Amino acid sequence: MTTRALGEPHGDAVSVEGGSPPTIGSAARAPGTTVEVRDLFYRTPARRKFLRTPASEGLRTLQMLQRVYLAHPGIDLTFVQDGEVRFRLPPLPDLPAAAREVFPDALGEGAFPFQGSGGPGLWIEGVASPPSFSRGNADGIVLLVNGRPFSSRSLQEGIRYAYRELLPRGRYPVVVAHLRADPSRVDVNVHPTKREVRFEDEAALRDALQHLLHGALRDQPRTSGLSQGASGPLPFVLPEPSGDRSRARGAPLPLPLSLGGTA
């Protein structure tokens, strides 16, 4: 790895080979950081045999880098695999612009932003695809908290439930949501790879995220259209929350009893 911060006269280089102690030195380079990985796990064949194909591992790396970029839209990110530039993501001013760069088909025309409070010490902002677009998997649901990507089946289920009357079974929206949380209300050290986090009240957060998306969907023009992959037209009309019809429209919606299924 070589890196140089803005304003520094020179860069630094760090090299690690086969688990040996790192070698640290100086490097002449422009401001920025380059990380190069070769022959991963060549000295640990037991781990290497669990690697997928180069194409699959490259896709997983690409998805991970895209999430880093969405968490920090101001960076200039280039991914090179086997000497070929797979993608370049330019620095952009905000999350909606970065999300459109990563998901141009889903978050282009018709996409809409949403933002609001997720509870005490928590702010949610994001961008979501219109009901006229959907995917066959949940890879387009990206969750970020305080500048780091994470996974949550509970929050994914809240997002899916907001679209429950608009997408056919087995279809998913594309949603990028960034949560700005008081660090005292979120624990990022509950998973070895930091993929999962624990919130002080995740159920309330799920309800708030679902409510924000539901309200933003209601504010969109009510038109009829065909969701990609659907078998018939899907009217863009959101039903009133089930249960007490006298409840205010802004009240949280009921959620499924079980949230443990695979998203």
TrEMBL record:
The keyword DNA damage applies. One of its GO terms (biological process) is mismatch repair. GO terms for cellular component: mismatch repair complex. Keywords: DNA damage, DNA repair. Residues 99-218 form the DNA mismatch repair protein S5 domain. Gene3D superfamilies: 3.30.230.10, Histidine kinase-like ATPase, C-terminal domain. Coiled coil: none annotated. One of its GO terms (molecular function) is ATP-dependent DNA damage sensor activity. Residues 1-30, 220-263 are annotated as: Disordered. Residues 249-263 have a biased composition (Low complexity). NCBIfam families: mutl (TIGR00585). PANTHER family: DNA MISMATCH REPAIR PROTEIN MLH, PMS, MUTL, DNA MISMATCH REPAIR PROTEIN MLH1. Belongs to the DNA mismatch repair MutL/HexB family. This is DNA mismatch repair protein MutL. It comes from mine drainage metagenome.
